């Protein structure tokens, strides 16, 4: 789903203060060390069990145990590859910028005027917030898809606060 102005290679004004900035990435509970430990454990169990079947004369089972380990390794690798995706949301007094990087490295970027954008949410009574959307000019952009329901609620409140601050405009502080 895309909305807004897709921009390639635009650089934000470095002098403009960021009111809000969030880098969202998919959560993965298993790190590389844990992956290696799980794969080592699976390999040893599969080898020992396969060896037992081999000694009983059921030699094809040994190959299937090896195939199972290979399929599990491939599934973990695909999962780690998908974890390279990210979404960055930045709010300044003059713009709200969403930059999404897919797991393949494809970049999409949208910019909005924070005065005209609003947030919408789809809420399930039992589950909580299922989806968050930025709405501008009648179109919707799904954001924060990586987050769970409680995290989406917290993110929603923070982003509403940031948009309110952007709508108030920059404040003048003669001391600094």
Q: What overall geometry do the principal axes of the alpha carbons give?
A: elongated
* Estimated helix fraction: 25-40%
Task: State the strand order across the main sheet.
Answer: 1-5-4-3-2
Report the structural category: alpha+beta
Global mean pLDDT: 87
How much strand?
25-35%
- Main β sheet profile: 5 strands, antiparallel
Annotation, overall tally of beta strands: 8
- Low-pLDDT regions: 1-9
Radius of gyration: 24 Å
Distance between the ends: 42 Å
Could you give the order of the helices and strands?
Answer: EEHHEEEEEEH
Please tally the helical runs, counting DSSP H or I stretches of 4 or more residues.
3
What's the quick description here?
Helix content is 39%, strand content 26%. It is built from 3 helices and 8 strands. Strand 6 and strand 7 (128-136) form a beta hairpin.
Describe the structure.
Strand 3 (86-91) and strand 4 form a beta hairpin. It contains three helices and eight strands. With 176 residues, it is an alpha+beta fold. It is 39% helix and 26% strand. Helix 1 (32-55) packs antiparallel against helix 2 (59-82). The model is unreliable at 1-9 (pLDDT under 50). The strands form two sheets. It has a five-stranded antiparallel beta sheet, covered by helices on one side. It has a three-stranded antiparallel beta sheet with strand order 6-7-8, covered by helices on one side.
Descriptive terms for the model:
alpha+beta; 5-stranded antiparallel sheet; 3 helices; 39% helix
């Amino acid at each position: 789903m895309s909305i807004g102005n897709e921009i390639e290679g635009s650089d934000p004004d470095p002098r403009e203060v960021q009111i809000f900035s969030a880098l969202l990435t998919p959560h993965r509970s298993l790190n590389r060390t844990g992956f290696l430990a799980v794969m080592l454990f699976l390999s040893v169990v599969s080898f020992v069990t396969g060896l037992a079947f081999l000694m009983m004369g059921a030699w094809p089972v040994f190959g299937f145990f090896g195939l199972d380990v290979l399929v599990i390794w491939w599934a973990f690798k695909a999962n780690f590859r998908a974890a390279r995706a990210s979404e960055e949301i930045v709010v300044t007094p003059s713009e709200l910028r969403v930059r999404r990087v897919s797991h393949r490295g494809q970049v999409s970027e949208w910019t909005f005027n924070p005065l005209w954008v609003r947030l919408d949410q789809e809420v399930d009574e039992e589950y909580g917030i299922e989806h968050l959307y930025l709405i501008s000019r009648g179109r919707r952009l799904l954001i924060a898809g990586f987050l769970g329901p409680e995290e989406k609620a917290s993110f929603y409140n923070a982003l509403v606060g940031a948009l309110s601050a952007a709508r108030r405009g920059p404040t003048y502080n003669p001391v600094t």
